[in-house]
Amino acid sequence: MKTKRAACFVLLLSFLFATLSAFSADKTAMNKKKAQQALSYALGQITATAQNGKEGLFARTTEPDGSWRWVKPNDWTSGFFPGLLWLLHESSGKKQLREWAEKWTAALEDQKNNVKTHDVGFILNSSFGNGLRITGRSEYRSVLLAGAKSLSSRFNPTIGCIRSWDHGTWTFPVIIDNLMNLELLFWAAQNGGEPRFREIAVSHALKTIAEHIRPDGGTFHVVDYDPVSGAVKQKKTHQGYRDDSTWTRGQAWGIYGFTMCFRETGDRRFLEAATRLANYFLDRLPPDYVPYWDFQAPGIPQEPRDSAAGAIAASGLLELCLRTPDAALQSRYRQAAEKILDSLCSPAYLTRGTPMKSILAHATGSKAANSEVDVALIYGDYYFVEALLRYLHPERIPKPAAAR
Ligand code: GLY
């Protein structure tokens, strides 16, 4: 009898131990307090940036002394500084941030007529898009609709894609990053713009699945098309290590972009694409979950990191974990986002105590061109703040179009 009882006791203990281990394996070290502390640090850094800001110019990247380099409205990154001001106004309630956000947003209005780059989507969505969501101002809506029309003018129906860049030796380059700009078209088609904006966005995203994604779930950065025949001319990289490597920020744009396309359409091909890209990304991360600049960079672990790629992926994964019906993937994506955020909130990546005026350090714009290596990048800061807000308030993550 005694032996039986002892055996039961041992069984019960091992059951409790297994349950506890499973539970703790599911937990990450990220918590709300860390997120709130990082947000209040971000508020201080961006407030100081605005106080020392330059009229009509936009913070982009840090100089060696830690100060911001300011760029013109037509730089692809210009919307992220006003975007940060909007996000931090929304989360802190501070009126002064709203005034700054309005001022720097207004300075971007002319970009609605910019037909020379796909980045009109990035520029307007982060500035006017956040502004419209937060204030409901009708003049912001008109700017966004005009911007969507400009973006749509870059669509080639033979290829089925929007042209990304006008620079370089390409004939019709389409970069994986371009997926992010489709959000402006989806929004416009539902808000008084032409219905064909949605068709353009869907066509572009499906073609991106067909031509940018490799069988292993990695991605090409640039696919160059023949604009007359529509045929693929070449598959190359611009910011990655090699044509056949996977540039980590491109992969992060893809995770976020395909998740957004699934939210806007309900088309499961986009969910499947986001899942494949996310699994590739997560299978190759270093122990702290912040990617190097390219997954195949030859000198890992001595290569520069790209904290911006980590921040973009974290924000995308926090949405993807809500969309996937697979419980194991939900938990995998949620935990990975938390691990990335936990590292980015740590002294290894936050600029606290350094001369840097940004929120995050250790981002890389283009190691391939030896430009903006191991610096701060305003879009890394933007997606970091967005991811912190998504972590703290998952209810803020945009609802699928069908549920709106
Ligand atoms: N073109 C966007 C980027 O460099 O990530």
**Helix-residue proportion:** 40-55%
Rounded to the nearest angstrom, the radius of gyration is 22 Å
Largest sheet: 3 strands, antiparallel
Which CATH architecture? Alpha/alpha barrel
**What structural category do the secondary elements indicate?**
mainly alpha
Structural overview:
- There is one protein chain.
- The chain starts with a helix and ends in a 12-residue tail after the last helix.
- It has a single domain, classed as Glycosyltransferase.
- Strands 5-6-7 form a 3-stranded antiparallel beta sheet, with helices on one face.
- It has 13 helices and 7 strands.
- It is mostly helical and 404 residues long.
- Glycine binds at residues 76, 177, 239, 249.
Short note summarizing the structure:
With 404 residues, the protein is mainly alpha-helical.
List the helices and strands and how they pair.
Layout: H1 2-26, H2 32-51, E1 58-62, E2 68-71, H3 80-92, H4 95-106, H5 120-135, H6 138-152, E3 155-156, E4 161-162, E5 173-175, H7 182-190, H8 196-212, E6 222-225, E7 232-236, H9 248-265, H10 268-283, H11 307-323, H12 327-344, H13 378-392
Antiparallel strand pairs: 1-2, 3-4, 5-6, 6-7
Bound molecules: glycine.
